[in-house]
Design brief:
Blueprint lengths: L1 H18 L7 H20 L6 H23 L6 H7 L7 H23 L3 H4 L2 H31 L5 H5 L1 H32 L1 H17 L1 H4 L5 H8 L20
Helix pairs in contact: 1-2, 1-3, 2-3, 2-5, 2-7, 3-5, 4-5, 4-10, 5-9, 5-10, 7-9, 9-10, 9-12
Length: 257
C-alpha cells in the first residue's frame, strides 16, 4: 500500500533528523518541511486524489530517494551535485526561509526532472494520452503543495523563522510562494522533456544536458541569497530554471565540478 511505502520514507527522514550533525543542523528546516509534505502526499494517494495513485507513489518515493541519497553522501564525505553541495555548505546563521529555498531549489529544479524520468520510459513519451494523464497528476501535486503553504508558513513562524516584518507581509508571501511553486514545476515538466530527448540520444547526450541543468540550478542560488523580500521577488522574476534547446546550450556546462 502507498501508506506503507510513504511511511518507510518518512521513517528514513526521521532517522536522519535525529542524526544530523551540528554542521548540518540548518538542514532541519528543509528536511522537516519535506517530511510533512511527504506525509501529505501519502494521505492524498490513499484518498485516490490522483488518476494513477500507484504511479504517483513510485514517483514520490524516487523523488525523496534523490534527496536522501544526497544527504547521506554529504554525511559520508562523498560527492554531491553542485546545488546540494551549496545548500549543505550554507551558513547555519542564514535565515531559515533562505535555507528552505536552497533545498527547494536543489530538489525541485535539479532533482525533480530526474525523478520523473525514473518513472517515465521513452515509450511513455510517445503516448500523448498517457502523458496527458501524467501531467494532470503532476498538476495535482502542484495543488497539494499550494494547499500546504499556509501550514508551512505557520510552522516557520512557530519555530521563530519569521521576523515581525515577515509576519506583516504574510498574505503576500503566501501568495508569492504559491505562484513561484507553480511556475517552477511548469518549468520542471519542460526540463523533463528536454532530458528525455537527450536520454533517447544516448548516455553522453544525457550527461551533458544533466550537467547543464546542474549549472543552471546552482546559479539560481545567487538569486535566493540576495537581500530583500525574496518571496515577492521570486513571484515576479521566477524560481524555476529552463533548459534551452540543445543547440543553444551554454558553453562549459558539461564541465565536471
Amino acid at each position: 500500500m502507498a501508506e506503507e511505502r510513504i511511511a518507510e520514507v518518512v521513517a528514513g527522514m526521521d532517522r536522519r533528523l535525529a542524526l544530523l550533525p551540528a554542521r548540518l543542523s540548518h538542514q532541519q528546516v528543509f528536511l522537516s518541511t519535506y517530511r510533512r509534505t511527504t506525509q501529505a502526499v501519502g494521505v492524498a494517494i490513499e484518498k485516490s486524489t490522483f488518476e494513477d495513485p500507484a504511479w504517483v507513489e513510485r514517483w514520490d518515493v524516487a523523488f525523496a530517494d534523490l534527496y536522501l541519497a544526497a544527504l547521506d553522501s554529504e554525511l559520508a564525505g562523498g560527492k554531491v551535485s553542485r546545488p546540494w553541495r551549496l545548500a549543505f555548505a550554507a551558513s547555519p546563521r542564514l535565515h531559515p526561509l533562505r535555507q528552505l529555498l536552497l533545498g527547494i531549489n536543489a530538489h525541485v529544479n535539479y532533482d525533480l526532472p530526474q525523478a520523473l524520468l525514473t518513472v517515465l520510459s521513452d515509450d511513455d513519451f510517445s503516448d500523448p494520452v498517457l502523458m496527458a494523464q501524467r501531467h494532470r497528476d503532476h498538476q495535482r501535486i502542484d495543488a497539494l503543495l499550494s494547499s500546504r503553504v499556509a501550514a508551512e508558513d505557520d510552522e516557520m513562524s512557530t519555530a521563530g523563522g519569521r521576523r515581525v516584518r515577515d509576519r506583516l507581509l504574510g498574505p503576500l508571501n503566501r501568495l508569492a510562494s504559491r505562484r513561484f511553486l507553480r511556475e517552477a514545476r511548469r518549468k520542471v515538466w519542460h526540463n523533463t522533456y528536454q532530458l528525455q530527448r537527450a536520454r533517447a540520444s544516448g548516455p553522453h547526450e544525457y550527461a551533458v544536458r544533466l550537467a547543464e541543468l546542474e549549472v543552471l540550478s546552482a546559479a539560481k542560488i545567487a538569486d535566493l541569497l540576495q537581500p530583500g523580500q525574496v518571496l515577492l521577488r521570486l513571484a515576479v522574476a521566477g524560481f524555476g530554471v529552463v533548459l534551452p534547446p540543445p543547440d543553444t546550450a551554454a558553453p562549459g556546462t558539461a564541465i565536471k565540478p
